[in-house]
């Protein structure tokens, strides 16, 4: 049976008990409205740990003023059932008051320079400060040995890895594979904002990413790959924030430089902003 915990003292007692028994603790932080992508992270955490804690907390500090904080879908009953079925031992449910005891305005912030400023950071100023601030707090609360983050949020994973290395958190960070719908659309809580008309178009992102990968591997210059990606997305009705090919650390590849790449897209269909990526 999963135990739902709302008091930090109870969470600490459970985790301390596990650690006394020599058990390894895994952690999957989420904002709820869980889907197969989240549950695959719980399965992944179970493979790396003996016990798994998952948190559900819609974090106000990572949403911009015109973003969807208030309408972000909240489905607590379904989340609890799904987490239990996925093999989660404890569901940690902090409140805004317990997460930010001095209030959001006076909260100590965690800022990871460099990688936070690129791509998502440029389009969503302050987003990664909010993510790092809440993940730091969650790490301090849960004190896991490992934590799982989805690779769909490629840049978030990169930012968290840098934060963990820089601040010497004794936590192994593991990236989980992207889980997709049948037509290739990456699973996301925001997919449910799509309408009957926009939902079929949303899968274009996956096709464009596959095309960007194939063109890059065939030696097409990066500027053309990116321009073609933007044009194809625009033709399908997207407002494009970026469609780029980067090094695995999100730096810009030099001309003719060989090696691994990641193509990343962020684009809006109506008011629904979607992100996805492909590593090659
Ligand atoms: O990826 C998410 O759902 C959130 O950014 C996270 C890591 C739970 C922090 O609020």
UniProtKB/TrEMBL annotation:
Its EC number is 6.3.2.1. (R)-pantoate binds at residues 62, 156. Keywords: ATP-binding, Cytoplasm, Ligase, Nucleotide-binding, Pantothenate biosynthesis. The active site is at 38 (proton donor). GO terms for molecular function: ATP binding; pantoate-beta-alanine ligase activity. It holds the Pfam family Pantoate_ligase. The keyword Methyltransferase does not apply. InterPro entries: Pantoate_ligase, Pantoate_ligase_C, Rossmann-like_a/b/a_fold. Its main location: cytoplasm. It is found in: Cytoplasm. It catalyses: (R)-pantoate + beta-alanine + ATP = (R)-pantothenate + AMP + diphosphate + H(+). One of its GO terms (biological process) is pantothenate biosynthetic process. Catalyzes the condensation of pantoate with beta-alanine in an ATP-dependent reaction via a pantoyl-adenylate intermediate. Homodimer. PANTHER family: CYTIDYLATE KINASE/PANTOATE-BETA-ALANINE LIGASE, PANTOATE--BETA-ALANINE LIGASE. This is Pantothenate synthetase. It comes from Stenotrophomonas daejeonensis.
């Amino acid at each position: 049976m999963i135990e739902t915990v709302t008091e930090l003292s109870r969470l600490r007692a459970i985790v301390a008990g596990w650690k006394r028994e020599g058990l390894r603790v895994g952690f999957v932080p989420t904002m709820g409205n869980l889907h197969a992508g989240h549950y695959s992270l719980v399965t992944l955490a179970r493979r790396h740990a003996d016990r798994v804690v998952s948190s559900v907390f819609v974090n106000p500090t990572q949403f911009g003023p015109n973003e969807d904080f208030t309408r972000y879908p909240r489905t607590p009953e379904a989340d609890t059932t799904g987490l239990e079925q996925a093999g989660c031992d404890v569901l940690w449910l902090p409140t805004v008051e317990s997460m930010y005891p001095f209030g959001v305005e006076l909260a100590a912030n965690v800022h990871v320079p460099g990688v936070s400023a690129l791509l998502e950071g440029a389009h969503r100023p302050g987003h990664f400060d909010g993510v790092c601030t809440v993940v730091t707090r969650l790490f301090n609360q849960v004190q896991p040995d490992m934590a799982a983050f989805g690779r769909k949020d490629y840049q978030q994973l990169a930012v968290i890895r840098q934060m963990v290395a820089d601040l010497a958190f004794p936590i192994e960070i593991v990236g989980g594979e992207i889980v997709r719908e049948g037509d290739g659309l990456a699973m996301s809580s925001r997919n449910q904002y799509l309408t009957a008309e926009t939902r079929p178009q949303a899968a274009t992102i996956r096709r464009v990413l596959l095309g960007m990968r194939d063109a890059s591997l065939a030696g097409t210059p990066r500027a053309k790959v990116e321009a073609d990606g933007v044009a194809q997305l625009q033709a399908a009705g997207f407002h494009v924030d970026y469609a780029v090919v980067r090094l695995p650390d999100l730096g810009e590849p030099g001309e003719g430089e060989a090696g691994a790449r990641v193509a990343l897209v962020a684009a809006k269909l109506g008011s629904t902003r979607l992100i996805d990526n492909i590593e090659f």
